[in-house]
Amino acid sequence: MTHRPIDSIGEPLRPVRPHPVETHWTEPPEPGQVDPAVLSALLHRHGWQRRGGAAGRYGRWTPPGPGGGGTSLLVPENRAFPDSDDLLGEALVALSRSGAPSARDVLVALAVPSDEIRWWRDVPTGPVGATSWSVEERLRSAARSMLLAAALATRARAGYYGARHRRPAAASLENVLVGADPGGRRLTAFVPVDTGRPLSVRLHQALYAAREAIDYQRATGGMDAFDAAVEAGVSHELTEAVVALVRGTEGARIAVEWAPAAGVPEGCAAPDEAVEFSPGDLPVLREAGARYLRAEPSVPVRLTGAVVRMRRSQPRGEGTVRLRVIAGAEVQHVRMTLDEEAYRIAGHAHLVGLPVRVLGRLESRGGFRRLTDASGVVPVQVDEAERDRLMKSLQENLDFFEEACSGD
Questions:
Q1: Annotated region Disordered: where (predicted)?
Q2: What is the pTM of this model?
Q3: Could you give all domains of the chain from N- to C-terminal order, each with its CATH number?
């Protein structure tokens, strides 16, 4: 017999907030809002070349790559001269009209001060330097997994997260803007300083810690450095992301470059070089990931949650219950096996629109989605608004849970 009291199917999808620059990046910022030194630093970062100009007054910048000699920007070095705003305005308009891919990146970084995270994969290319669709998809997937691993590490330190903290970590990536090079071998993420700097800092520290742990293992044969690296943000999820980035390549690099407008965060140094990983690192990374997976212990918890699914194979006896977690753990849903009496209590609580409280241990096996040794199941009083919402869900899904608590 299967009972499905409430399910998430049919719920409207939560709208994703746009990156704050998406709606207006094509319009250059006002000259009065732009620091000339920041603009010059961004042009240099994105490969533009300074080719002279009046010393102490302005510099002439040309875009990277062949054919850049026909375009140039005059960027004042400061605001000491009356024509500084005019030169800035002309430079910003020229950037907005430029066909150079780096021009958009500069405008994005000016519109919303952002730390820039870059990934490179050294992969064979096809005709005219093109790469296959799957190669570009793997780059995007690995980069997102790496950002998610860093976001998880800003919530808590753990060798393995599973389902824990995943929803708030994923939500923290909503304002990150990503742009890929046409060749599919490089990807850049713009992480707004106001909302995302902890993520950038954590990723920067975790990548260096992972690199040092790999070097230590190669020199000594020991994996101890990976235990200490957890505090820096290294985890099963991060090692898996690095493996995905490197697999199928001749090597990969990741660099974190701090927003010039915000400066270098405390405790960090401006990196001179990207962190590099090679195919030879993969066995160590896989071993570290498996080690984290085995070592992460189960967690004692006291959960409050709404019953969303019930199942047992016989009219009587123990059954499996799925809870939508309201409080007590940073996971969205858990499953647990209850004895006959506890199963009946959970069913009755659901039918009257009440969540339940239960004690147990979140097991790392399966990603912290299962509660073992469940005991002390009791209904919990909630405010009227939450109770009405639960009852509404009950009424809308009557066909799913007839006889939900019946054992007779």
A1: 1-31
A2: 0.76
A3: 20-111 (no CATH), 112-296 (no CATH), 298-400 (2.40.50.590)
